[in-house]
Amino acid sequence: MDNVSILEKIYKSIIIIEVNTVLDKIDKSRCNLC
Length: 34
Fold this sequence. Notes:
Number of helices: 1
Largest sheet: none
Helix content: over 70%
Oligomer: single chain
Distance between the termini: 49 Å
Order of helices and strands: H
Number of strands: 0
Strand content: under 5%
C-alpha cells in the first residue's frame, strides 16, 4: 500500500505542475492580448 500511495502523490504532483504551466501560458496569452 505504501508504494501505491507514493505513486499517487507523484501523479498528483505532476498533474498540479502541468496545470500550473497551462495556467501560466493562458495568463501570458491574456497579457499579450492586453
